[in-house]
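From the shared-data thread, chain only:
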Amino acid sequence: MSVNPVRGAWGVRYQVRDISRSVDFYTRLGFKLDHQHPPAFAQVSLGGLKLILSGPGASGSRKMPDGRDQQPGGWNRVILEVDDLPARIGDLQKEGMRFRNEMESGPGGKQVQIEDPDGNPLELFEPAGKAS
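Structure, as tokens:
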């Protein structure tokens, strides 16, 4: 194959149950609302990352040919870089965000997983060597 079939990364798609609720969640985290067409679709962005939110009835959330439903949740996740992860955790706990785990530390840095209202995971990550 002489031509690269992939032009570039577009974004990440998450399955959600309620577009308005999801837009509220992500914009509270600092994402910008690019556009929305409730109840089926919205796109939010943060820097160069586009997060496509597919609600009921969206083309990106239709049943698979074998009949399986596309469901929110799972373990693959978007990783968002933060400064001072312990402080961010405290702020988000005050806002009632759902956490999947306690902060973990390793040679690459510190991380914790939160969930959006539909159980889709996000990882907050502070790279090693950052002051906190």
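The longest strand covers residues 109-115.
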